[in-house]
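Subject: Protein record for review, amino acid sequence with backbone structure tokens
How to read it: Take the token row as a discrete description of the fold.
Enclosed: The protein record, placed directly beneath this head.
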Amino acid sequence: MPWFLYHALKQLFPSGRGFSFFSLMSIIGVMLGVCVLIIVQSVMNGFGENIRARIVETHGDIRIRSSDVIDDWEEQIQLLEQYAEVLAVAPFAEGVIMLQHGARPQIPMVRGIDPMVDDAVMPVRKFITLGDFEQFDDHGVFLGEGLAYALQAQPGSTVEVTTPLMMQRIKEDEILLPRQFTVLGLFRTGSPSVDGNTMICTLRVMQELYGLGQGVHGLVLKLRPGVDAFAFAEHLEANELRAGLQPISWLEANQDFLFVIRQEKLVISFIIIFIILVASFSIAIALMMAVMRKTREIGLLIAMGALPRQVAYSFCLQGLIIGFLGTFLGIGLALMALHFRASIMSFYAQITGNELNFLGIYDVYALPVHYLLSDFIMVTCFAVFISTLAGLVPALRAALLNPADALRSE
């Protein structure tokens, strides 16, 4: 072991004591900075992944729409199914309705699907929490849990549906009575905005409610894993689809929201980086005080033949060791905090008396987490680099000491 490494370790961990006070404070500073940075990045990654997965599950990889009703949708499906990248294609129709149960009205979105083929594109069956999807027919509907709660409806309840077409007929002196449907069950996608604002009926019923005839509003595509949805949508628009059909990938449809998530992660991480920078100042101060306290010892080392650069190495190594210890302890603390995040959040809510609610902004029920190796590497490199850099000024001061003056120092 080089003497300067041994000297660095002895400075940080004096004999008879586990840690010097200043070294301990420096390590804790780096640890807290790294811990908070890892937590923030992992949580923001979790929000992004949660939102991406939910968008794809509830809206598909690519949606093909038109300004008019698509009457030749069966031909378009046959064309799209020829692509190896496409797993499944399903037609859909959707719009806004007035839904009423008793004296409780709501204005949700209604989505008409083909139960025979839509399950391969969007796993509606997977989201059913009450009821049996096998009973799905033209006389029944499924409600999102939030919507059912607002209507005070449950499986077996009868709801009334009024559409814009019915309102238009009233102006033409023709009265169409609201359609009645039986609630077959409830579903929960994990997205409060969908669960609280969506009714699902069969495609045939939706065509009748909106007067579409045999047409649909669009097609939804499910792609094979690994296929670039944005690039494939551009290829379809440029080469295959007839004029008037517009393919939109889930990335393009939600690019503004996904951009906001990425920017939030960058901004919050940038702010929290200053915690590590503050910790680096404590490292620099601790090492500078060590140089001042050990001036005579440093002079003695130089007088005994130690090279100035070796003395500098000793103090730089102290910063490096503090950085490594603080970083790995911070990562461990972050992983532990994220593992018990539900309990921690529940405890915080009980103490403050405030319920933590992410529904309004991030559209999730709980705090999601997603780990990226690149985040851990970046945080580790940054923290260790800053810690080592913090030891540079004390190292230069120690290396530039005149041995004669240092030995006379009191």
Observations:
- The radius of gyration is 32 Å.
- The chain has two domains: 3-52+257-408, 62-226.
- The chain has a mean pLDDT of 80.
